[in-house]
Amino acid sequence: NPKNTRFSINFFTSIGLGGLTDDLREFLRTNPPPATPVEPVVPVKTEIKEDEDFKDRERMQ
């Protein structure tokens, strides 16, 4: 997991053990981050329904 790998690199470097992170850095260089999945756009159908009370009021007038 690239996110966990970056965290590990930052942690070990901050406590003075950056030399341990060489393999992790190489892992990040050789494995590009995965593409962010894009959800398909689904058209939303909307229906406009007249209010029944409004229809009743129109009939009474």
UniProtKB/TrEMBL annotation:
Protein name as annotated: Uncharacterized protein
Lineage: Eukaryota, Metazoa, Spiralia, Gnathifera, Rotifera
